[in-house]
Amino acid sequence: MAFHFKNLRLLTGDSDLSAPTSLSVRGGRIERIGDLGMPPEGTEVIDARGALCLPGMVNTHNHSPLMIVRGMVEDLGFAPAYTPGVPQGHWLSGEETLALARLGVMEMLMAGATTIVDYYRKPDALARAAAELGPRALIGGRVMDADTAALAEGRFVHDPALGETTLRDALDLIAHWEGKAGGRISTILAPHAPDTCSRGMLRTFARLAEETGKQVHTHLAQSRMEVAQIQAREGMSPVQLLEDVGLLNADLIAAHCIFLSDDDIARMGRNKVVVAHAPIGNASFGAAAPILALEAAGARITLCTDTKSADMFEAMRTAIASARRRAEMEFVLGARQVFGWGTAAGADALRGHGASGRIAEGGPADFILLDPDAPNLRPAIDGYGIIVHSGSAANVRTVVCDGEILVRDGRPTRADPAEVIAEAQRVAERLWARARA
Ligand SMILES: [Zn+2]
Questions:
Q1: Residue 32 C-alpha to ligand 1 middle, in angstroms?
Q2: Is 432 inside a domain boundary?
Q3: How far does residue 306's CA lie from ligand 1's centre (Å)?
Q4: 299-345 pLDDT per residue, tens
Q5: What is the pLDDT of residues 2-29, one digit of tens each?
């Protein structure tokens, strides 16, 4: 496939937005940027009408089937997924998981993410959804071996059978899906969290990481309950526990990272841990991660929406608001830096996906075009500020990933959005009826 986008305004480095340029794509790569003359025969020419063009977003932490509770539990307190009256994740069949994952992946893609991380139970369904819709995806099977009912009461009760089943699914996923969908799908190791995994399970993952060379994605210091439970169970902080079992290193991607001591922050920095910063979800329960302290200590920061709204523009903006809230109204963190977290930093920190998070000749053709007619994107002078402080997922009109147009005129090219939405709605209605019965 070859495309020639003309009349776009490229947001990269110190680009000059006042001078529209062109960009040609061939064989998954950006072939040329700039005046291209007559495009060769067989090239589709697309007039971008002055649209802003930016690198595809890298959304580093999600669980697309958790769509099932979105809009229903946010006001119920922390982690209400194990509360009576709410659909339980383990009720979901493979087909139901697929229906929700298709909605989740489609939403992330339409919001401008060309690389996503998605992990949950029934990971095969997540991989199928990503393969169908087309983004680069790092997929994992979420593994845990704690009894969830006891966890809701703050106690750890080992459930080895759950550990066995979820670990088997996670390993099957790696065996079947690594490098599939034309290389756009890669697999990750995903122990759920320090408080939902036994010490033995965490050690198993340290060994698997060493054997496979894969990165490990987990939740870390997400709640006070987790910190208290690990302190009671292990006599240390969750960060210390991960260090103790051999997981606290540059191959760890840790989501949330909110409730950390200064010592925890120093350990994470020293070990160059990657943080999947989820500012929207954190803020929704009143929390703000010490993200700038983590970065200053040496941790690497990436951004995610964690199945909240899939809007990385909102995530960038909320990251700034929460950093400034934490800094007691100092004007820390700016648009360019947070834009880097959502694009290049994410691509650099994750392995196995082939993205760069940048727009450059010879580089992967992963980029998005925004609506040239959107009033919220004006005035466009420097570009970064308007996108971060005023942009929206709803502005994304075109998404190109690996040289393929996956969203055109705001519609996914590989699936019928009405069908994807109707199917997910049906599944959600059925499970909510069951939860309330
Ligand atoms: Zn999560």
A1: 38
A2: no
A3: 6
A4: 999 999 999 889 999 999 999 999 999 999 899 999 999 999 999 99
A5: 999 999 999 987 777 878 999 999 999 9
Q: In which residue are the tokens 């002055």 written?
A: 50
Query: Ligand 1: distance of its center to the CA of 4 in Å?
Result: 38
How would you class 229 by CB atoms within 10 Å of its CB: exposed for 0-12, middle for 13-18, buried for 19 or more?
buried
User: Both 341 and 405 in a single domain?
Assistant: no
> Residue 235 is part of which domain span?
57-349
Question: How high is the pLDDT of residue 80?
Answer: 59
Ligand 1 centre to CA of 36 (Å) is 44
- Gap from CA of 120 to ligand 1 centroid (Å): 9
- Average pLDDT, rounded, for the chain: 95
- pLDDT given at position 191: 98
CA–CA distance, 140 with 66 (Å, rounded to integer)? 15
Ligand 1 geometric centre to CA of 66 (Å) = 9
| CA distance linking residue 303 with residue 319, whole number of Å | 9
- Domains contained in the chain, number: 2
> Ligand 1 centroid vs 78 CA: distance in angstroms?
13
CA angle (418, 419, 422) in 5-degree steps: 85
Taking a C-beta distance cutoff of 8 angstroms, is the pair 426, 96 a contact? no
Task: Judge whether 425 lies within some domain.
Answer: no
Residue 32 sits in the same domain as residue 74: no
User: Which H or E run includes 416?
Assistant: none
Residues 185 and 305 placed together within one structural domain of the fold: yes
Quote the ligand 1 centre to 62 CA distance (angstroms). Answer: 6
Confirm whether 435 is domain-assigned: no
Tell me, rounded to whole angstroms, the distance of Cα 165 from its chain centroid. 25
CB-based contact 27:403 (threshold 8 Å): yes
- Measured in Å, residue 5 CA sits from the centre of ligand 1 at 37
Residue 141 pairs in a beta bridge with 120, 189
Q: Which segments of the chain have a pLDDT < 50?
A: none
CATH number of the domain to which 43 belongs: 2.30.40.10
* Cα 255 to ligand 1 centre (Å): 7
Quote the ligand 1 centre to 219 CA distance (angstroms).
6
SS3 389: helix
Residue 94 Cα to ligand 1 midpoint, Å, equals 20
How far is the centre of ligand 1, averaged over its atoms, from the C-alpha of 322 (Å)?
A: 18
- Ligand 1: distance of its center to the CA of 88 in Å? 16
Task: Flag whether 131 is in a domain.
Answer: yes
**Whole-number pLDDT of residue 420:** 98
Structure tokens at 196: 């939902």
For tokens 């006599």, the residue is 235
The structure's pTM equals 0.97
Give me ligand 1 centre to Cα 247, in Å.
18
- In 255-290, alpha helices (H): 262-270, 279-284
